[in-house]
Amino acid sequence: MIKPDRVTTTTCPYCGVGCTLQLHVKDDFIYKVTSPFDSPVNKGNLCVKGRFGYDFIYHPKRILKPMVRRYLLDGGQETVDRSEFPQFTVNGQRSTDWVETDWDTALDITADKLTEIYRRDGSDAMAVYCCAKATNEDNYLLQKMYRALFRTNNVDHCTRLCHAGSVVALQQAIGSSAMSNTASQVLLNDVFMVVGSNTTENHPIIALQMKEAVMKHGAQMIVVDPRRIELVDFAALWLPLKPGTNVPLFSAMAQVIVRENLVNWEFVKSRTEGIEDFIASLEKFTPEYAESVSGVPADDIRRAARLYANAKNAAIYWGMGISQLSHGTASALALIHLAFLTGHIGRDGTGLNPLRGQNNVQGASDMGAMPFHYPGYMRVDEEENATKWEKAWNVEPGGLSRKLGLTTTEILSHAHPGGVRALYIMGENPMMSEPNLNETRRHIEQLEFLVSQDIFINESGAYADVFLPAVPFAEKDGTFSNTDRRVQRVRAAHPPRGLSRPDWQIICDLALRLESRLNPFDPAQDKRPTAKWDYAHPEEILREMADVNPDYAGITYERIEKTGIIYPVPDLSHPGTPTLFTEDFPRGRGKFIPLDYVPVMEEPDDEFPFIFTTGRVLEHWHGGTMTRHSALDEAYPEARLEIHPADAEIHGIRDGQAVRVSSRRGEVVLRATLTEKTSVGVVFTSFHFHEAAANLLTNDALDPQAKIPEFKACAVQVFPARDADLANPEVMLARGRY
Ligand code: SF4
């Protein structure tokens, strides 16, 4: 039996549940992961990713030295034209070899090039992707660098691609966008709805709690999902709706609640506004109409409405099946209305709970890694907020931009001469996660300068000019904020490998270089007017942010040493706030917003007869940067297309056979799995595999308010293919560089 040198307690780097991990370390190597039974979130339980998915840290392809393209080393400005070095081709882009270098060279080149582009083309030419996998401190600093030095709000991250629709809807109706209650309060529910969330595979520990609520506490679960996901086995009712028909389905439930007088009028009168117009708008949403568009039997819609409305404590948990639609905002509003009508919000065991995907997507959003908000969701276009942050960052009055920035999806579509010229990507992978990847590739090739700060060179890093090697979660300190709003410690288990460095240190060193180029020494004032970049420890960074953001005001590393604390925490003696909105909503009254049904942008037709929908599988995570460099890859080694046996028979497809799936935007080849988990007419695959990248097919149509793409539904055709067609050599080449 191995005796560890130390056991480091930290937080899981995968999903938003935020399980506590104990990393057992011997000779600076993690050999085992456990979790304590008294861990506040997961009570000692871990899923396969948390328990076994850490070996990517030691993968030989991890990048441990800074790297730059040869043309940058050979002469900078004059030789920056990549076409002068056509040594190999990546996805049609002519490029040159990487050259390993030292940190000073890599950071100086980066600072010089960013400064040159900023001076020449101004703030609108600069953009940054922050990272929902990085710590709060990393994200706070990166958005600060772009806002304070480049004076741009072109700052965003992958929240745009998962829950932007939920965020906008909750902001409109309530004035706050996080989960209203904690996930473990599902154990207090009599009834709960799980909507558009394959919780078993996406948030496995929350799924355990949901099953416990049903099996041990007698709760009734309503599952709303086009697929027969595992939770259906535990559900009192399953509503298998056609993808993209949330608005008519939930509006019909609202109509039943109104017509059968199940409304909590006391709550509606005292806590909401707009009920009259809302009720009038429900006229057309009869259960029979909803059945005609969603496929869910009208009687089941009635049963669901009665179950939810008559419960003492009911809650709604939802996932990307609600938000990843061109009407994702309306879909989330349709759910919010149900809670308003019944008063199932503002008490323990109730609530509106969008389950956040990435480990720190909540925190990155809190830290202002978004184009419309400073940290603490303070609008960038409101003078009072800008003034607060100018003071905090030592920026002259009026210096910060009041203009709303570009979202992730817009940043790349603006990558052309006259638009965005320089992009900095920390830890994200748009060449896997954006919709319509063929179009994304054309955009990314238009950039003049791309910086990738990551642990591997992924599909997006293959296009970078400079690669800055960062460290994974187990080699740095900081905090993550989970889906419950619980701020928890991240701790280094061993030193960084090679020359890699924590993100916050890289950002500080780069920012200091940028300051010296952009804000030269002022002899009149005998000083250089700079924001602070010389932090001794991440805790100092959190304190700087918490001094201005009231939600985090009472959070210190000392207070979260053992169990974390759930914000809002307005002062140092406050115990945290697991349940929100007990008295009122941040906007005052909750607002009913009448809705119309707008179908998905691309319905099936004769040419493309299937609805294509995407999601995750248990063993993998997003673009696969971590899990595909882990032994987990052996457990689920290739992409699969789930297709109903009845559809497979019509199209002559056998289980395990290669199939070609094509949409109006691209095609992939992968193996078919015949399963009744998916409905007739709907096919599903996960988006983890670059060899069959699902987002080559998906539609880049956006929700007009949230700017989230319609990942959950587009039209495709499926044909039998040959095994020889399975690999996509161009994408393989991009990854195969390192
Ligand atoms: Fe990590 Fe999420 Fe699994 Fe918990 S449920 S171990 S946070 S991936």
What does this molecule look like?
The chain has 738 residues and is α/β, with parallel strands linked by helices. It has four domains: 6-58, ADC-like domains (N-terminal domain of TfIIb), CATH 2.20.25; 69-74 and 106-160 and 360-523 and 533-566, Rossmann fold, CATH 3.40.50; 164-355, Dimethylsulfoxide Reductase, domain 2 (3-Layer(aba) Sandwich); 610-727, Barwin-like endoglucanases. The strands form nine sheets. The chain has a seven-stranded mixed β-sheet. Helix 4 (136-150) packs across helix 22 (538-546) and helix 9 (246-259) packs parallel to helix 15. It is globular, with a radius of gyration of 25 Å. Residues 77-94 and 729-738 have low confidence and may be disordered. Iron/sulfur cluster (SF4) binds next to helix 1 and helix 8.
Rg over CA atoms, rounded to whole Å, is 25 Å
| Continuous helix count | 25
Give, in spatial order, the strands making up the sheet with the most strands. Answer: 7-4-20-19-18-8-9
Number of strands: 32
Q: Given the helix and strand composition, which structural class is it? A: alpha/beta
Residue share in helices?
25-40%
Main beta-sheet strand count, sense and barrel state? 7 strands, mixed
Q: Classify the fold: give the CATH topology of the largest domain.
A: Rossmann fold
Unreliable residue runs: 77-94, 729-738
Overall form: globular
Beta-strand proportion: 15-25%
**Cα distance spanning the termini:** 35 Å
Small molecules in complex: iron/sulfur cluster
Count up the domains. Answer: 4
Mean pLDDT: 92
CATH architecture assignment of the largest domain: 3-Layer(aba) Sandwich
CATH C-level class of the largest domain? Alpha Beta
